[in-house]
Amino acid sequence: MTVQAMTKVFASLIAQHLRRAGMMSAVLSVVCVLACALLHPSAAFAIGAAARVKTQEAAAALLRGDLQVAVNAYTAALGDTNLDKDRRATILNDRAVALVRMRKMELAIQDYNQAVQLFPEYAVVYNNRGNLLLDLNLPHEAVKDFNRAIVLAPGYAEAYNNRAAAYVRLRNGRAAINDYTQAIRLMPSTPAPLSGRGRAHLALNQPHAAIRDFSRAVKADARFADGYRNRAEAKLDVAHYSEAIEDLSRAIAFDANNSELYVLRGHANLATENTSVALADFNKGVELAPNSASAYEARGLTYALTLETEAALEDLNRAVELNPRSAIAFAYRGFAYAQGDQAEVGARDIETALKLDDKSPEVIWAKGEVVLIAGNREEAIADFREAAGIDPSYRRASLALQRLGISDEVTVDTPVAGLGIEDWVVVTRAGRYYATSKKYRRIRVPLEMNGKGQPKLLQWALRDKPFKGIGTLRFSTGTVPDKNNKPVPTEATAIVDLWQATVVAVQPTRTGSKRAKWTWSNGAISVASVDGVMDEFRVRNGRNPAVAGRGRRGDYRRNAEGVWEPWAQGPRAGTRKSTRRKRRRRKSKTIFQLLFSN
Questions:
Q1: DSSP assignment of 120-173, as one string?
Q2: DSSP secondary-structure letter at 500?
Q3: CB 446 within 8 A of CB 207
Q4: Strand order in the sheet with 502-511
Q5: Sequence-separated (6 or more) residues with CB below 8 Å from residue 129
Q6: Where in the chain is the domain with CATH 1.25.40.10?
Q7: Is 482 helix (H, G, I), strand (E, B) or coil?
C-alpha cells in the first residue's frame, strides 16, 4: 500500500472513531495528521526502513488510543539520523498530536515549534498548533496559525473549521459563520462544521438557523450525539419542548453517561409539567455527576416548585457548596426559602444572587417570586417584565405575568416603524426582532438577520388545501458581501403553522441572484436552499392537528381567520361562566401548576 493510500485509510478510521465518541467538533483537525502527504507532496519522500516501520507502528497505536506507545515509536523514528528536514517535521507533528491527547501541552508545543522551523510550508502543523493554542485559551494566537495554514493550503477545510471555532471564542460570530460556511462547502458530508455553524447561530440569537444546521449535521451522521444535543438546546430556545426531549433521548442513547444531557432533558420535561419524569432525569444527572452544581440547582428548583421545601433546600445548599459563585443557586434557594414561609431569609439569598449576576433572567424571576410572596405585587410585576425583557425565550417570567393577568408584550416590545406589511408589524425585544400581528396574537415570528440592516417584511401568504392553516412570511435579512466585497441583499421566509401557533422553520430564500426553490406536496414542504442543501418539513398529515389533538368536544373553535383556538382565547373568553370556572380551578393549583400552565 502506498503512503498516500495508507494515510487516507488512517484518516477515515480516525474520523469515524472521533465522531462516534462525539469529539469531532473539538479535534477535527487531528484526523488529517496522518494524511499530511495529501496536503504537501514532499511529505511522501524517501524514508529509512527502520523509521518507516516505527512510524507505521506509531500510527496504528495512535489509532488504537495507545498514546504512550505511539509517542515512543515516533521518538524511535526520529532517531534516524538520515531523515531530511521535511520528514522529520512530519514525525514531530504526529508525535505532538499524541502528546496533546495525553495533555502534555508543553512538550507538544515544543514539537510543533520545531516542526515549523524545519518545514515552514507544512500547513498541517500550523493547523494543529492553532488547535493547541485554542485549547490553551489563546484564540488570537490560534487565528494567526490558522491564517498561515489557509494561505499554504487554500482548500484546507479543517483549518477553516478550526479558525471559525477561534472566532466563536473571540465572539466574532459573523466571521465564524463565514469560515464554517467555507468548511461546509469543502466537506459537505461532514457534520462538524455544520454543528459548529449552528453553535455560532445560537450565539447570535438565531435558534431557527441553528436548528437548520444541526438537522443537517445529524442527517450527515445519524449517530452524531453532539448534533442532537445542540439541536435540543436550540429547540428549547424556541419552546419546542417535545422535540427537544426527543433529540436529548437520541443523544443519551449514544452517550448514556453524560450528566448534562439528563439535566437538559429534565428542564424540557419540567417545562411540559412532567414533574416526575423531570425529577428522574435530574436524579440521574446527580448520580452521574455528584459534583455538578447545575444538576442540584435543577432538582432543587423542581422541589421548590412542587412545595417540597426541605428537599429543595438540601439540594440548593449542596449547589451553593459546590459553586459559591453561582447566582442561580442562591436565587433558587431564596425562592425555596420564601416558599417555605421564610421570605426574609430568601430575600437575603436574592441579594447575594444579584451581587453575583444582576442580569440573569433566572435571578430576576426568583426575586419577583420572593417579593410577590412577601406581598409586593407591583415590584414583582416589574421584576417579571425585566426578566422577560432580558431573555425573550425565558418562559417562566412570561408565565408569571400571565398568572397575574398581565401581558408582557406591550411593556417589553418596541415597535419599529416602516418595516411592517399588511397586519404585521416589526418589534424588538432584548435586541431581537420579531413580527407580530393582531390577527394572530399567539404568533411571534423571529426575524433572524443574516447581515447588516433591519428586517423588512416583504410578503405574507396563506396556503390553500391541503396546506390550509400554513402561512409564509418573507422578509429581508440584511446585506452580506459577495466575493468582490460588494453588498448583496438576502431574504428569508418563515413557515408559520397557524393551527399549532408555531413557527415551523425560518429558511434562507435569497442571496443576491440566488433563490431557493420551494416544492409543496403530500403534506411536506421541500426547500432547495440557496446554499445548495435540501431541507424538508412535514406540516400536514391529512387531518387538522388541532382537532385531532384536542380533548373535550368544544375545547377549540375556528376564529375569523380560520385558526383553531381554545375557547378561553377567543371572544367568549370574557364570559362570566368561563371566568368562574377558571377561578375555581386556580384555587386548587400549586405554584408549579400556576407557573407552567397557560
A1: TT-HHHHHHHHHHHHHTT-HHHHHHHHHHHHHH-TT-HHHHHHHHHHHHHTT-H
A2: T
A3: yes
A4: 457-462, 470-481, 487-497, 502-511, 514-515
A5: 96, 109, 112, 113, 116, 145
A6: 3-204, 291-409
A7: coil
| Cα distance between residue 378 and residue 381, in whole Å | 5
Measured between its terminal Cα atoms, the distance across the chain in Å is 66
The three cell numbers locating residue 276: 416526575
As a whole number of angstroms, the distance between CA 62 and CA 72 comes to: 11
pLDDT at 25 over 90: no
**Third-level CATH fold of 291-409:** 1.25.40
What's the pTM value of the predicted model, to 2 decimals? 0.74
Q: Is the pLDDT of residue 100 over 70?
A: yes
Enumerate the β-bridge partners of residue 495.
Answer: 472, 505
Dump pLDDT digits (tens) for 565-595: 333 333 333 333 333 333 344 444 444 444 4
With cell 407591583, the residue in question is: 378
Distances in Å between the alpha carbon of 570 and those of 275, 439, 544, 581?
30, 11, 19, 16
Q: Supply the pLDDT for residue 34.
A: 42
For the stretch 343-359, pLDDT in tens is 999 999 999 999 999 99
Taking only the tens place, the pLDDT of each residue in 366-380 is: 999 999 999 999 999
Alpha helices in 225-308 (DSSP H): 225-237, 241-254, 259-271, 275-288, 293-305
DSSP codes of every residue in 408-458? SHHHH-EEEEEEEETTEEEEEETTEEEEEESSSTT--EE----SBS---EE
- Alpha-carbon distance of 411 to 387, in angstroms, equals 12
pLDDT for the residue 16: 42
Length of the chain: 598
> Which secondary-structure segment (H or E) carries 535?
strand 534-538
3-state secondary structure of 506: strand
Task: Note the CATH number of domain 3-204.
Answer: 1.25.40.10
